[in-house]
What does this fold into?
Amino acid sequence: MDLLAVTTLDEQVHVYRLNGQKVFGVTNRQALGGVNQVKWKPNGQSIAVAFSSRKICLTSSQTGKMMYQLDCSAHSTAQICCLGWGYNFLDVDAVKVNIYKLRGVSNLEDVTNLGSQAKPSDFPDLPTDLAFLDVENMMPKLSTLPAGGQE
It folds into this structure.
């Protein structure tokens, strides 16, 4: 998908195809402030836009709809000056097997730049994996406290 994101003077982000056709825009309808940063997800499926009001909007490049809005103002008074995407590998053994299948890959940079060789199913999905964690079985079993004490 060949898309280009452009920030305008009126603090909006417009996404265009390389032929000039407008695909969608991330507008400042909610008085989010000026645009500080724009960062594409490495697979091109999402774009993150950080505003001066310390809010981050994650927008789908497939639908043009906002997926999430993160409010960072509760955690810090500093402006967002840098955005980045990270990789979370919960099931290390499964990732090793998938890397072995993709012979010739030697490091994480190679894994993240595989392009068409890697499928989204080759790597775990952190939000989904976290949703299915069984917290009760993972927590240590504690003995019951004896009844007693002074009243």
In short: Residues 54 and 72 are 5 Å apart (CA to CA). The mean pLDDT is 75.
